[in-house]
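In the lab's daily routine, each protein ends up as an entry in a very long ledger. A line of letters takes care of the sequence, but it says nothing directly about the fold. The fold becomes a row of whole numbers, each drawn from a learned catalogue of backbone shapes. The protein below has been through that process, and both of its lines are reproduced in full:
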Amino acid sequence: MRITRNVAKTRAQLDRDLDEFGRFSEPALLILISMADGPKHGYAMTEDIAQLSGERLGPGTLYGAIARLESRGFIEPLESEDRRNPYRLTAIGEKALRARLAALEAVTRAGQRRLARA
């Protein structure tokens, strides 16, 4: 019984931590990864994500995810001298990206260990 409570407490803390950063969908994660090496505008993100993942995000998917990321403070718009709207990763966005990538790494390691035993 005591172990169950400790696991529940740890899981509850983890849920709170992840809620602080918001829920990630794959497009949002790909956008954060794309911006990790510097500011980009929408078309540059689309091209970078296509090279990175082989997936081309449509405008609705891309700009919907950008709006959600901006509303959570993970990215911020930069001033532009033309019609392009560049964005950059914020400090909290970088922290969220690092946390999400660490969680994905842990899941990947567990999956590979299980496959090795099969």
Helices lie at 2-21, 26-35, 42-53, 59-71, 91-117. Strands lie at 75-77, 87-89. The chain is about 70% helix and 5% strand. The two ends are 32 Å apart (CA to CA).
